[in-house]
Amino acid sequence: MTPTRQGSFRFFRFAGITVFVHWTWFAVAYYILSSRSAVYASLFWNVAEYCGLFFLVLLHEFGHSLACRQTGGSANQIILWPLGGVAFVAPPNRPGAVLWSIAAGPLVNVVLVPVFLLLGFAADAAGLAGSSPNLYSLLQTMSVVNFGLLIFNMLPIYPLDGGQILRALLWFRLGPIRSLQIATGVGFAGAGALAVLAFFKGSFWLGIMAAFMVMHCRAAWGYARVLAARQGMPPV
Ligand SMILES: [Zn+2]
Q1: Helix, strand, or coil here: 60?
Q2: pLDDT tens for residues 118-150?
């Protein structure tokens, strides 16, 4: 369901965190490079846009990893694949540590929103649209993608960041098991809504995403049941 190091190659290592790229990521590269060729004047700018997207996802994942380390957890690898990036984080088993490890990823995008806005104002003031239209388009795209990543990741659909944040917040009051049950329940509903949207929009990617979420919610729901049975809690 999630990418593994099998089929991935080692890209680089920073702050004790190794970044791997799954081979399927190149399918995305091909798709982006071929579908957006009309936006820019040359292939160079398409490649630059692709690298920019790569960079945004990486910053987000490093947010998760470094925050997890801060809480005393372990986080030493990130894998990039077509559905984005996966930071393998194992925070200590307490809600505050989990909340911070998850929230730090979208927070990176939150910080980048005003950065891109300022860059946009500066670009307009400098007349970049006329003098360097490719760079101007690239900046605009990065800004939109950053905002899109933020909104999408904050949807409260487990295992998206929003869903995991919901779970961590509920954990403070309801404990680790009930919080996971409620978050995965909400996740099932959200993934169902996404599947309907994918159907009506005819979006292959949204459909894949919805299927991925359902599989994760099922696994997490099953895990919560096992934990509940172990503790003698009544099933829900
Ligand atoms: Zn994230």
Answers
A1: helix
A2: 999 999 999 888 888 889 999 999 999 999 999
pLDDT digits (tens, 9 = 90+) for 207-220: 988 998 999 999 99
Of 22, 46, 53, 61, the active-site residue reads 61
49 belongs to the catalytic site: no
Dist CA 98 CA 100 (whole Å): 6
Q: Please count the other Cβ atoms lying within 10 Å of the Cβ belonging to residue 177.
A: 20
Q: How far apart are CA 63 and CA 15, in angstroms?
A: 12
Distance 1 CA to ligand 1 centre (A): 16
- pTM, to two decimals: 0.86
Q: Residue 78: which pLDDT band, with cuts at 50, 70 and 90?
A: very high
Distances (CA, A) of 59 to 63, 66, 85, 86: 6, 10, 10, 12
